[in-house]
């Protein structure tokens, strides 16, 4: 079947959207809400513990109708079927894209190159469960017969950002093990981590598909030398494990064959936390919680795969993103989780989105003459309000925002949570409504500021009409986190399909690495 190739700007729907944009470009959100008391209900979608509210976006029902026409015209449904069935939609590397298979909870076969891959996934999960239980329980002993107290994940990119983000996000569910992440080739980073460790009680996980990644192998070799200052070569088997496809290189490093967990070509690094790459997650929160992470992702997978586009949260989100990027010419998108646990979500999504859809050549091999991808950035609320939100409110740039909030706090401090969520709702309202010159004038008079009233007035006006999507979740659980991550994964996929690009290669990463090797050899 393959993916249909086209130029999206040549579709009938794109032309309709272009005309439609000129009609509603200057329509204010206050006007849209004022004309429709049921607007919030019309533009909201519920999925499990999630409520997606798209009503504060600069769209009408007609906008969505045209956008859905666009998705149909580019045959998005067939592309979704190809995505889930294991077709090699990563054409440039001749690979399937099956991170969804890693969390599959059904009994249906998923075949790659004539082989059902589900048994191998199940076998790997069983091995991860057994291994993590041994370490967490203390049955796995180090070379001096002491229990493991610290876990160090050595990887970079997808072998670091995903696990690191999830472990931080689910810190509330962590066990007694201390978890650390070494990624940067900067030796200072490695040394600062080693300062905190006892070689007798530390387990190292080296994560590298090819076992050739310069940063990971350099850090792993440095750490191995540090370890051997007090231990013997034969002790490596008790303190080092690997996630890789290169069995020979791993064993040459000194790691026992029994301590190697597999990776597969049909899983891209930035979508691999669901696999053995998530071993550090398993060790940090236990296999039961890891399994719930997979279940949550699977539930979003099924929603995305089976729900009509008009009620499909990832599809609607993706289409609204296209609307802003290609018609409003926005270039950035801000992620604002209102929980400190998700402090690493924005950096994780930066890689997932920007490495995937930062492309300028289409699936026909032609140079693209329209915008693709977005610059992703963000921070946690309310920190963001005291940092960059000024630019969103009164700056000259239009920046769509995702506000992610939770109905319940984990630690149960109701006063703190009430104040947090008051800010959450206030920010979305302020961005949408703004403040008119009349409202600003009245506020200044009420404050008794009569002398400088006219001078201050221009600075107190907020244009509003700044778009945002509200994602309200019942509680931050492993299952709901899995659901949230999968939501963004599918958004990446849909936008890549519409932009007619290959989202699952990353050749742009390679040039700098190649030049670095040449420069290093000259030094």
Protein described:
The chain has helices spanning 12-24, 29-34, 39-42, 61-73, 76-85, 118-137, 161-169, 187-194, 214-227, 247-253, 279-285, 287-306, 313-328, 345-357, 389-394, 414-433, 437-446, 453-456, 478-498, 510-522; strands at residues 44-47, 50-53, 111-112, 115-116, 150-154, 178-182, 202-207, 240-243, 260-261, 332-337, 375-378, 401-406, 468-473. The protein is α/β, with parallel strands linked by helices. A hairpin with a 2-residue loop joins β1 (44-47) and β2. It has three domains: 8-94 and 307-433 and 467-509, Rossmann fold (3-Layer(aba) Sandwich); 112-289, Glucose-6-phosphate isomerase like protein, domain 1 (Rossmann fold, 3-Layer(aba) Sandwich), CATH 3.40.50; 434-463. The strands form three sheets. Strands 1-2-13-12-10-11 form a six-stranded mixed β-sheet, with helices on both faces. The N and C termini lie far apart (50 Å). The protein is globular and about 75 Å long. The model has no long low-confidence stretch (mean pLDDT 95). It contains 20 helices and 13 strands. The longest helix is centred in the last third of the chain and has 21 residues, at 478-498.
């Amino acid at each position: 079947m393959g993916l249909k190739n086209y130029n999206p700007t040549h579709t009938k729907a794109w032309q309709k959207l272009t005309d439609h944009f000129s009609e509603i470009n200057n329509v204010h959100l206050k006007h849209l809400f004022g004309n429709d008391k049921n607007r919030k209900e019309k533009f909201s979608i519920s999925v499990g513990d999630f409520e997606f509210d798209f009503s504060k976006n600069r769209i009408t029902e007609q906008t969505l109708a045209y956008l859905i026409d666009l998705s149909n015209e580019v045959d998005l449904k067939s592309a979704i079927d190809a995505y889930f069935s294991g077709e090699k939609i990563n054409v440039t590397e001749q690979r399937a894209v099956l991170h969804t298979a890693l969390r599959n909870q059904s009994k249906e076969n998923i075949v790659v190159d004539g082989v059902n891959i589900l048994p191998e996934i199940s076998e790997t999960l069983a091995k991860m469960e057994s291994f993590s239980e041994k370490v967490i329980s203390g049955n796995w002993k180090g070379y001096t017969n002491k229990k493991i107290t610290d876990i160090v994940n050595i990887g970079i990119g997808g072998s670091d950002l995903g696990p690191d983000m999830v472990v931080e996000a689910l810190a509330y569910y962590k066990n007694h093990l201390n978890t650390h992440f070494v990624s940067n080739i900067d030796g200072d980073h490695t040394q600062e981590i080693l300062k905190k460790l006892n070689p007798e009680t530390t387990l190292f996980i080296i994560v590298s598909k090819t076992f050739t990644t310069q940063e990971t192998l350099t850090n792993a070799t440095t750490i191995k030398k540090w370890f051997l200052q007090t231990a013997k070569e034969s002790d490596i088997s008790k303190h080092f494990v690997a996630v890789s496809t290169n069995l020979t290189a791993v064993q040459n490093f000194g790691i026992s064959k029994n301590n190697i967990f597999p990776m597969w070509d049909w899983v891209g690094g930035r979508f691999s936390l669901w696999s053995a790459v998530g071993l550090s997650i398993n060790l940090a929160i236990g296999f039961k919680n890891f399994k719930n992470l997979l279940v949550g992702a699977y539930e979003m997978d099924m929603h995305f795969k089976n729900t009509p586009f008009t009620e499909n949260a990832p599809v609607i989100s993706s289409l609204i993103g296209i609307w802003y990027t290609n018609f409003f010419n926005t270039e950035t998108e801000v992620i604002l989780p209102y929980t400190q646990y998700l402090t690493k979500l924005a950096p994780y999504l930066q890689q997932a989105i920007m490495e995937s859809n930062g492309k300028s050549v289409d699936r026909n091999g032609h140079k693209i003459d329209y915008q693709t991808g977005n610059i992703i950035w963000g921070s946690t609320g309310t920190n963001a309000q005291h940092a960059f939100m000024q630019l969103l409110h009164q700056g000259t740039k239009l920046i769509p925002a995702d506000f992610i909030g939770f109905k319940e706090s984990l630690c149960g401090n109701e006063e703190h949570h009430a104040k947090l969520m008051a800010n959450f709702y206030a920010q979305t309202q302020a961005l949408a409504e703004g403040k008119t010159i009349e409202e600003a004038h009245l506020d200044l008079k009420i404050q008794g500021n009569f002398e400088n009233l006219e001078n201050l007035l221009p600075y107190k006006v907020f244009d509003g009409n700044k778009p945002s999507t509200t994602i309200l979740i019942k509680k931050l659980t492993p299952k709901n986190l899995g659901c949230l991550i999968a939501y963004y994964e599918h958004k990446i996929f849909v936008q890549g399909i519409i932009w007619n690009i290959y989202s699952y290669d990353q050749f742009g990463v390679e040039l700098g690495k190649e030049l670095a090797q040449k420069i290093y050899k000259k030094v």
